[in-house]
Amino acid sequence: MPIRDLQFSPDSRYLLTASDDKQMKVYEVQKGDHHEPVFVGSASGHSSWVLSTTFTQDGKYFLSASADHTVRVWEFSKRENVVTFREHVDQVWGVCVSPQGDKIVSVGEDKAIHVYSYKPAEEEVEERVNGNGTTQSDEEEMMID
Predict the structure, then answer these.
(1) Model pTM?
(2) Which of 53, 88, 103 lies closest to 74, judged by CA?
(3) Of 37, 80, 96, 108, which is most buried, counting CB atoms within 10 Å of its CB?
């Protein structure tokens, strides 16, 4: 299966991949022999391709964006899905986390940028921001021209 994205953990010990088999795979890089990281586990739960992935700065969580229209937050140590955001109406192409770790931003084929306020164990959509920096209410669909 093609790998769509890959990210190092903040401590550079692990490599996280996103691929068309609907999974994220975790490899330990320090145990690898130069170019051969060691597979340590996977996380699954998406119903379509995983297109983007990233770690939180503390490395306790990672995020995934998928063609199944969702953004998911995963606990790294257990590789368990703890939150699923379902705001997009088409494929989600990218996801990132703010340096403080309290905001998640996603962008999708639907031309929407969604900003989520997130703390472990709670899910809340805070606001949607369009390209010129203004915000719209949660009820409105935000599009990028």
Answers:
(1) 0.79
(2) 53
(3) 108
Q: How far apart are CA 91 and CA 38, in angstroms?
A: 30
Say if residue 77's pLDDT is above 80: yes
Residue 114: which residues within 8 A CB-CB, separation 6 or more? 71, 85, 87, 88, 105, 106, 107, 125, 128, 142
Which of 68, 40, 55, 66 lies closest to 96 in space, CA to CA?
55
Q: Give dist(CA 66, CA 52) in Å, integer.
A: 7
Domain covering 3-136 in this structure, CATH number: 2.130.10.10
- Around Cβ 33, how many Cβ atoms within 10 Å? 7
pLDDT at 47: 93
